[in-house]
Amino acid sequence: MADWREPDVIRVAPVPLYNTFEEVFAFSQFFENALDKQQHIAIAGAGLVGSLLSIYLARRGHQVSVFERRPDMRKQTVDAGRSINLALSNRGLRALDDIGLTAEIKKAAIPMHGRMMHDRYGKLTFQPYGKEGQFINSISRSNLNMVLMDKAESLGVEFSFEQRISSVNLKRPRLTSRIKNQASSK
Ligand SMILES: Cc1cc2nc3c(=O)[nH]c(=O)nc-3n(C[C@H](O)[C@H](O)[C@H](O)COP(=O)(O)OP(=O)(O)OC[C@H]3O[C@@H](n4cnc5c(N)ncnc54)[C@H](O)[C@@H]3O)c2cc1C
What we know:
CATH superfamily: FAD/NAD(P)-binding domain
Radius of gyration: 19 Å
Strand order of the largest sheet: 1-2-3-9
CATH class: Alpha Beta
CATH architecture: 3-Layer(bba) Sandwich
Bound molecules: flavin-adenine dinucleotide
CATH topology: FAD/NAD(P)-binding domain
Number of helices: 5
Helix content: 25-40%
Order of helices and strands: EHEHEEHHEEEEHEEEE
Largest sheet: 4 strands, parallel
C-alpha cells in the first residue's frame, strides 16, 4: 500500500474520460488554472493517458500518485489489453515532443504510409494515410507505456500497482482502493 502523506489534499483525475493525448494536454491546463501548486493529485490508471498526464502535472509542480489495478508491466508481462501496437500520428507526437520523448519513441517506430485493401476478386487498392511522404507510426503500446512511466518516475511521480480504485469521495476527499481482495482507504 502506498504511504499517503497528505490525505486532505487528494484530487482524483477521471482519467478514463480523457482518451487522447490532446485531451490530456487540455486537462492538464485545466489543473494549471484550477489548482494551486503543490497539490497532491491521485490518478486512477497507469495507462497511456494516466502516465502522460502524471508527467504534465509533475512538471507543473504537483505531487502525483498513480494507482494501477494491474501489476507493473516493467517487472512482469501483463495482458497487452487493447492491442499490441498502436498508430501514433502527429497529434500524439506533439504531446511527446513537449516532454522530450519523441526521438526515443520514434527510434522503434515503423512508418505506415497507408493500408492495402484486398477485395473479393483479388484486386488490391492502396489507401494512403496522408499526402505523399506522410505516414503514421506503428509503435509498441507497452513500450510507450513503460517509457512514459519511467519518465514520470524520474520526475517524482509515485506509482502503486495492483491497486484498484473502488470508490472516490470528492467531498472529503478520500479514495478507496482494493489490493488483492483487501479494501483500504486513503
Ligand atoms: C482495439 C483498439 C485499438 C486502438 N488503437 C489505437 C491506435 O492505433 N492509436 C491510438 O492512438 N489509439 C488507439 N486506440 C485508443 C487508445 O487505446 C486509447 O486512446 C488509450 O489507450 C487510452 O488510454 P487510457 O490510459 O485512458 O486507457 P488505457 O490504456 O485503457 O489505461 C487505463 C488503465 O487504467 C487501469 N484501470 C482501470 N480501472 C482502474 C481502477 N478502478 N483502478 C486502478 N486502475 C484502473 C487499467 O488497468 C489500465 O491500465 C485503440 C483503442 C482500441 C480499443
